[in-house]
Amino acid sequence: MQKSKYEKAAWPYVAHVSKDETSLIYELINLLEKKLRLRVSSSNQKPIGLATGRTMQPIYKQLVSRLSSWKQSDLEALRSGWCSFNLDEYVGLEKSHPNSFSSFMRRNLAEPLGFDQSKVHLPNGMSKDLILEANNYSRLLKSSGGIGLQLLGLGVNGHIGFNEPPCDIASGCHLVTLSASTRQQNVKDFSGGITSVPLKAITLGISDILSSQEIHLVVTGEHKAEILRTLLHSEPIGEIPASWLKVHNNVHLWADKSAMDYP
Ligand code: GLP
């Protein structure tokens, strides 16, 4: 494997490994709840970076359940100060399409918590000028203060967001052609088979992700064990997009035992 010229931080900054997904998510929700309480008590908070995917589904479910037990006034304060930016969106799907990431966020987070949709930002994959849309999304994120806490999942080919291998550490928000393996990974969500999975997406780039103050990478399930092993052993290189996280000095890795259990 090619050597990287980038220096590794002490990585991960913290590894949280739990016996199963349920206890892992419980711990993660405890931390997220603390961070969200801070948002309520302080007005000067950076946007939250959000991800979609199967890994995130049970996390949002538990988060919704935890936040629903908050005092109404606290929940109302969280709602009014909410500002999040998602990593990515498919190109060519209407916001209302059941497989758009916009719909995913509405179903899994915004609607159950009564968040104003306009505070849950995602790129517009239906824009007539997708490159301009990517630039505008990036600009809006920067002018909103950049990401504070970023939640991340991991693709089986090592992608984060939709940064497909090989990818550049300096990349900003951009239009991307999805790899065959990513479209295959996500086909389960589409009733129309592989041809109904979009060919392109808009994604925040590695440099946007690395600008976050803290990053929480969540990896669960046996099917992620191989890529997680590769990631843990890798230098920071473009062939494994998530390995760029190794130059960041505040990455928390959250893994259950089946993802972490490797020889
Ligand atoms: C998707 C998304 C990523 C996600 C990753 C893992 O395609 N673009 O944001 O984190 O792949 O997905 P999953 O959690 O479904 O395995």
Q: Can you offer a commentary on this structure?
A:
- This protein has nine helices and ten strands.
- By secondary structure, it is α/β, with parallel strands linked by helices.
- Helix 1 (21-41) packs across helix 3.
- The chain is globular.
- Bound molecules: 2-amino-2-deoxy-6-O-phosphono-alpha-D-glucopyranose.
- 2-amino-2-deoxy-6-O-phosphono-alpha-D-glucopyranose (GLP) is lined by residues 51-55, 87-88, 153-155, 161-162, 182, 186.
Topology:
Layout: E1 14-18, H1 21-41, E2 48-50, H2 56-68, H3 72-81, E3 84-86, E4 88-90, H4 101-113, E5 120-121, H5 130-143, E6 149-152, E7 174-177, H6 180-186, E8 200-203, H7 206-210, E9 214-219, H8 225-233, E10 251-256, H9 257-260
Parallel strand pairs: 1-10, 2-3, 3-5, 6-9, 9-10
Antiparallel strand pairs: 4-8, 7-8
Helix pairs in contact: 1-2, 1-3, 2-4
This protein binds 2-amino-2-deoxy-6-O-phosphono-alpha-D-glucopyranose.
